[in-house]
Amino acid sequence: MQGIQRKxxxxxxxxxxxxxxSTLWLTLLSGESPTSTGPLALxxxxxxxxxxxxYNTAFEYWxxxxxxxxxxxxxxxxxxxxxxxxxxxxxIPLIAWWLNITLWQAFVLDFALMLIIPCYSFVFNYxxxxxxxxxxxxQQPVAEPAIQGASASN
Length: 154
What we know:
With 154 residues, the chain is mainly α. It has one domain. 75% of the residues lie in helices and 0% in strands. It has 4 helices and no strands. The protein has helices at residues 3-30, 34-63, 73-99, 103-132. The longest helix has 30 residues, at 34-63.
């Protein structure tokens, strides 16, 4: 599976599972009820969906230009951490506002999410690629066969 279909399936599955993890994690850490953390997790997920599409498009744009396109463990780690760190910029103010806490408290809550979500992201990506194959950006180009001269004559 490739292209936009792959991205839609990827983002949908990633975010539904991620929203469940986020709701449970925020409920546990904040002491708030799931009726409060659930809608927050939905907003976090909505932001993450949009960012995930943009981030993965940019990542694949970069990846396809690399000499080696193999998705090594290192490349997967960088991908997962990079996504989470850039997402923080959007999430900390939202968490602070929604839970009526300071930016620092929101950062601490989000930091707790940052510890678990990259691990989830790494495992999810590994399993997803195993089930659906890696995108074209992570595949080595196929060498074209050498053109052979005309050896037969009439």
